[in-house]
Amino acid sequence: MSTGLYLFEKTTDLTHHLGKGMPIYPGDPSPSFENYSTIRKDGVNLTKIIMGSHTGTHLDAPRHFIQDGIGIDRIPPDKLIGEAYVADLSKKPIGSGITSKDLKPELEEKIVRDDIVVIYTGCSEHWGEASINRDYTYLTGDAADYLVSKSVRAVGIDFLSVEKFKAPEPVAHKILLANGIFIIESLSRALKQFVGERILMICMPIKLQDGDGAPSRVVAVPIRED
Amino acid sequence: MSTGLYLFEKTTDLTHHLGKGMPIYPGDPSPSFENYSTIRKDGVNLTKIIMGSHTGTHLDAPRHFIQDGIGIDRIPPDKLIGEAYVADLSKKPIGSGITSKDLKPELEEKIVRDDIVVIYTGCSEHWGEASINRDYTYLTGDAADYLVSKSVRAVGIDFLSVEKFKAPEPVAHKILLANGIFIIESLSRALKQFVGERILMICMPIKLQDGDGAPSRVVAVPIRED
To answer: In chain A, pLDDT over 90 holds for what percent of residues?
Structure first.
């Protein structure tokens, strides 16, 4: 498989571990991963998982904020695999809002219709530091409008949410989701190595029936340069 | 992306829905997917998920049955994407054990080292019928030994387990997992369309820290025939 366009042998994980003490969006269900049976006692290891639909690296479906929006299980499987461009917005101070004016010079010559656009804010460097969970870099409504105008397929970000923390009106989510653009949140700091590059991105949510979102495995596959 | 070796635009889901009333392996944690908040009441849809690590379509890691085996998070990401051969064993009566003698004529000229081998038993046609949950087609230890001898990467099957129901000794699991061969269980009936064919298989478990297994999204990508 090393002769194709995509270098599957160099697949890189962009996903956070699901485990005890992991950061979550404040107010979300507390995750728990407990031994349900063990080899020592029962001959087999099994785990009971409790978590929210937006725990860890995850996708948001339109149904997250749109009453009649589709669920995570209804995103067509071929849309979960696609080329992405990773934009470096880490020059924006942590906690600030990214605007269309910030995005244009980074994206205008780089993206094409149906691309996945992934925003590296640098907040992922602080994953696990509680102070940032309420003060991370986010997208303004105006940035979301710009992404809609570019007909992107999906938008990814390397922290808990694309939205300003506890925004009275979740404008970025609503604008993207109402336009059928799914959202990938809490990508790991491994994203950094791909800034300014195109990758093949595989974004695989568990298939939660009518789910508003779902924990996902997300990986990057480098593209061969000719 | 339609010009490559793999036809991503024809990606087919092999994953069961996670939802109310779904079949589980008898004795596993009861899954539950409840509204944690709703747009109507709270302005946002969020779900609280409770499930086992082997609920729905999932992967088994060595740690499932091997005390010092690796967890699901330590399977290298590039091993989760690979070419698979789908073998038709549906001629075996439901509830019987598949032996090396059954596998050899189906696989001998078809597979190469590091392939994913996927067994279509036909049991997936009966997903949701309670009577079959304790009487499905399985792999014998001798079949597992044969697959080890062929140095396969992973073994998939279209029902709850590769193991005879409540086998006193889980030989198939132990032989495969002790040899670092991960297992893909509860693939959906969508598998049937690929019997006798090679596909690119993308098997993406959620990244459960030290997990014995994990619910997964699994898809098939057709390979272009030249």
So the answer is: 96
User: B-contacting residues of A 184-223, CB under 8 Å?
Assistant: 202, 204-213, 215-217, 219, 221
Query: B residues 59-78 near A, CB within 8 Å?
Result: 63-67, 73, 77-78
Closest Cα in chain A to B114: A1
Q: A8-17+53-222 is classed in which CATH architecture?
A: 3-Layer(bba) Sandwich (3.50)
Q: Torsion angle of alpha carbons A207, B97, B165, B148, nearest 10°?
A: -70
Copy the structure tokens of residue A52. Answer: 């929210």
Burial class of residue B77, CB neighbours in 10 A (0-12, 13-18, 19+): buried
Tens digit of each residue's pLDDT (9 = 90 or more) over A125-159: 999 998 899 999 999 999 999 999 999 999 999 99
Contact B157, B185 (CB under 8 A): yes
pTM of the full structure: 0.97
Reference B136, options B116, B158, B151, B118; nearest CA is: B158
Task: Name the residue ranges covered by the structural domains of chain B.
Answer: 8-15+53-222
